[in-house]
């Protein structure tokens, strides 16, 4: 039974909805790293194409899973997922947008990471209810699926537009956070979640200060306080003027009066330990001009909020970077969209998380990616590098509208302990989209031996404009 808790004058932004919780089940095995679906110690690459045509259904959506190897993502070992794939719930229908959001965790603790796929356009009790599909990992890769619980279908739309997974309430089980629009904008589905389990309860919240029509537009998570329990970064728009709004949420706090901390406004974020102090740091990207968002900047900007024992470190001012910052390649120009995508990972294996920043609007939206390095004192611009399709060794050539850098991810596809840089350009080839992967080395991403592939290489139709790479590993 659902209970609505009324907001009060001291409540922070969100009003909770709650369900009774059952006793969690015992863990079965050590959890696998996210996105390692076959348990081989290499992260696999997931590419969402939510506008892909499936069996003649425009914008039904598809997802490619390209498994890691000693040489990086290998398209000869892949899994294609649509709602028409055998064993998948539902049916591919026009405008479902399967693959709009991705997340991964070992939900059932069997030693293999599982994949969560958002389908915000799925029709249910009304149009655009949305749904989330869990696809299970195994020794042979992804196989079998079920639908994630949806408690409040009459109170939201576009459920699954953004996703995050982690033990947010600290009970030892992996939970799933789901963004949506409407009266309920954020849902927490309690773990454990297994192939056959009934639901273990959950909660939802409605945002009193943010636009319900925009809802929660992006989620990320990480252990900012260093206590072993991840917090969640929420992105949305304010109700009064549509400006970007970003907050850090502690999902364990039940009274919802002090569970949010305000962060620099932006549209995307990533969490990781840049200075290796045991507290994850938060990077927020805001790729808008000031004319489009009051928190933006000429050409876009990125803000780094350093973590501490209580969350964001109060005695350490956020680091704000643009392409005009000393040491950052390039120059801030209108429409560059610096901060369109952000990702953290240890490229050179020195123990500090490094930062990849997409600038999808650079040079008439040809796009570019900037890499900055972590250190004991935090993020540094020393040795910063920039990559485009015109960089020697990178396949292809920069063309207006490619949007190279719309999404970026830093993760170890080879199993050598260094994060590899993967970049998407959803506008490549008139909207087909494509993905690039550059191997991490002791001196940074290597263009030598870098690879690129598009939807056709992984079984996705190029009918219409699939937008391959609209979503990547989060």
From TrEMBL:
Keyword flag Signal: yes
Keywords: Glycoprotein, Hydrolase, Repeat, Signal
Protein name, as recorded: FG-GAP repeat protein
Organism whose genome encodes this protein: Streptomyces indiaensis
Secretion signal span: 1-28
Compositional bias ranges of the Polar residues kind: 194-220
Keyword Repeat: yes
Pfam families linked: FG-GAP
Superkingdom: Bacteria
Biased composition (Low complexity): 440-459
Renumbered residue ranges of the record's region Disordered: 192-230, 412-474
SMART domains on file: Int_alpha
InterPro entries reported for this sequence: FG-GAP (IPR013517), Int_alpha_beta-p (IPR013519), Integrin_alpha_N (IPR028994)
């Amino acid at each position: 039974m659902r209970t609505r808790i009324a907001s009060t004058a001291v409540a922070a932004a969100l009003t909770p909805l709650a369900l009774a919780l059952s006793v969690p089940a015992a863990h079965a095995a050590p959890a696998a790293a996210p996105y390692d679906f076959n348990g081989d110690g290499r992260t696999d690459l997931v590419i969402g194409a939510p506008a892909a045509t499936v069996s003649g259904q425009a914008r039904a959506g598809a997802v490619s899973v390209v498994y890691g190897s000693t040489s990086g993502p290998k398209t000869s070992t892949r899994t294609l997922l649509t709602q028409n794939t055998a064993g998948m719930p539902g049916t591919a229908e026009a405008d479902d947008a399967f693959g709009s959001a991705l997340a991964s965790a070992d939900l059932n603790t069997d030693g293999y990471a599982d994949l969560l796929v958002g389908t915000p356009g799925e029709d249910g009790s009304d149009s655009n209810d949305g749904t989330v599909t869990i696809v299970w990992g195994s020794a042979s890769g992804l196989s079998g699926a079920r639908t994630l619980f949806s408690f409040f279908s009459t109170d939201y739309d576009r459920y699954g537009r953004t996703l995050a997974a982690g033990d947010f309430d600290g009970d030892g089980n992996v939970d799933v956070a789901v963004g949506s629009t409407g009266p309920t904008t954020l849902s927490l589905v309690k773990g454990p979640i297994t192939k056959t389990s009934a639901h273990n309860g959950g909660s939802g919240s409605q945002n009193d200060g943010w636009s319900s029509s925009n809802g929660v537009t992006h989620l990320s998570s990480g252990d900012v306080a260093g206590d072993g329990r991840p917090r969640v970064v929420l992105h949305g728009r304010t109700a009064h003027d549509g400006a970007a709004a970003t907050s850090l949420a502690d999902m364990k706090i039940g009274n919802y009066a002090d569970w949010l901390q305000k962060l620099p406004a932006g549209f995307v974020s990533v969490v990781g330990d840049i200075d290796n102090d045991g507290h994850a740091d938060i990077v927020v990207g805001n790729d808008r001009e000031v004319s489009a968002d009051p928190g933006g900047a000429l050409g876009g900007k990125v803000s780094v909020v350093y973590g501490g024992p209580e969350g964001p470190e109060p005695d350490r001012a956020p680091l704000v970077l643009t392409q005009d910052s000393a040491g950052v390649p390039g120059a801030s120009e209108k429409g560059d969209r610096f901060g369109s995508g952000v990702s953290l990972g240890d490229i050179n294996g020195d123990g500090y998380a490094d930062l990849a920043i997409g600038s999808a609007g650079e040079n008439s939206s040809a796009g570019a990616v900037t890499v900055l390095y972590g250190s004991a004192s935090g993020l540094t611009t020393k040795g910063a590098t920039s990559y485009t399709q015109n960089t020697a060794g990178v396949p292809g050539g920069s063309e207006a509208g490619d949007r190279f850098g719309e999404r970026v991810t830093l993760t170890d596809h080879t199993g050598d302990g260094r994060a590899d840089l993967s970049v998407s350009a959803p506008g490549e080839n008139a909207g087909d989209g494509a993905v690039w992967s550059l191997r991490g080395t002791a001196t940074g991403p290597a263009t030598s031996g870098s690879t690129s592939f598009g939807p056709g290489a992984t079984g996705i139709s190029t009918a219409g404009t699939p937008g391959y790479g609209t979503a990547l590993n989060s």
